[in-house]
Design a protein that fits this description.
Blueprint: E1 5-8, H1 10-19, H2 32-35, E2 42-47, H3 50-56, H4 62-72, E3 78-82, H5 95-107, E4 112-115, H6 126-134, E5 141-147, H7 156-169, E6 173-177, H8 185-199, E7 204-207, H9 215-225, E8 229-232, H10 246-255, H11 264-283, H12 289-292, H13 298-301, H14 305-317, H15 324-337, H16 347-361, H17 370-377, H18 389-396, H19 405-409, H20 415-424, H21 431-439, H22 441-465
Parallel strand pairs: 1-2, 1-8, 2-3, 3-4, 4-5, 5-6, 6-7, 7-8
Helix pairs in contact: 1-14, 5-6, 5-21, 7-8, 8-9, 14-16, 15-16, 20-21, 21-22
Length: 466
Amino acid sequence: MKKVQFTETVLRDANQSLMATRLPYSDYEEILPVMDKAGYYSIECWGGATFDSCLRYLNEDPWERLRKLRKMLPNNKLQMLLRGQNLLGYKHYHDDVVEKFIELSIKNGIDVIRIFDALNDFRNIETALNATMKYANENTVASGCISYTQSPVHTVDKYIEMCRELQRMGFQTICLKDMAGTMTPYEAEHLIKGIKDAVGDMPLILHTHSTTGMAYMTLTKAVESGIDVIDTATSCFSGGTSQPSTETMYYALQQYGIETGLDEDIINQVNDFFKPVKQKYVDNGQINPKSLATDAQALVYKVPGGMLSNMIANLTDMGAMDKFDSALKEIPQVRKDLGYPPLVTPLSQMVGNQAVTNVLMGERYKSISKEVKNYIKGEYGIAPAPVSEELITKVLGEGGQPIDCREEDVKRTGEDFENAKKALGDLARSEEDLMSYICYPDQTLKFLKKRREQEENEAVYTIEEM
């Protein structure tokens, strides 16, 4: 019997896409022992924007969250999304930092590390792969990930060759990451059949979003074409900019006679638990109705769910939601100017923010963000297609040439760790605290100071009670 397994995304990408990753651990801790019995291939629960959100908005230590998840989900593979040389931040880190981050992630409980590069420049994922294999235990899976998009330079043949390269590099599985939900059933069939012919029995995973309304058709065609694992979200957190529904796909595949390994009663219990959780955030406005809707225009704009929810949040904060449609229309032009990068973190934020800036300023590139300038300088890797000569000249000057990002990445001076120790002093109690600071210095410093204040207050209360 054919088998297709499921990765459940509610603890990471589903809430990241619908509510900008504002779901605290306390909201779902109670259901974790039930989820542990569901029969998932893996539970995606860390990485992506969770690290930043824990520190910036939720007053949580992301490492402590991971350790709790590991304890509460002993029978499941815990999965994270890693941005290659970017780790979970928005810039490249030195190789020694990448290696230590991978070591700590595995040590604290991660099993499946899904590694991608926003530009599909595989030089930027090699260090993370090597570190994963170096620190691997019997449960570790290194999953190579392709950022899927459509453009004049992104073809089926190009994607098939990318998969061959990921297999040659030593990855154990391959994931097609359709972050904007723009992959059509036709494309899924031709792409997956071609990849399967190229890489043989190597497990192939499809990650997509319901943003455009294509996802259910695309997943069904992917199953027919040989996909091994699909990413889904418990139904109340599915749809819109999130993933397709776990239960819906389970029932559909069951009628095809396809084994999933899922327990029907358990997955329905999981959904029943999350219904009031979701409603709370709908009621308080953190889940915007726009994130729950289908928007076929995303087939033109190629905007992923997390990018869309962040754009909505940012424009709302600025009181400029009237510019939303104009900003969406500006995105394809910015993307073309930057050489058709796939719109995935950190490129999605960079392109989206630049599009918003262009619209608000009333002139293209009157103000260019530091991140876009660094991209044009070559700090993120090689663009899929040539960058606009006008932009290159504007940023680098006449005759300026981009740098090779890997020349900087490979440095192993230990300087990042020493700087973190000096900055934190006795606020840092572990390698994990230092790593948090390296990734997010301002947010980590605030978090650690607040942690100390809370502990000091608790100590005072304890003494008074005595």
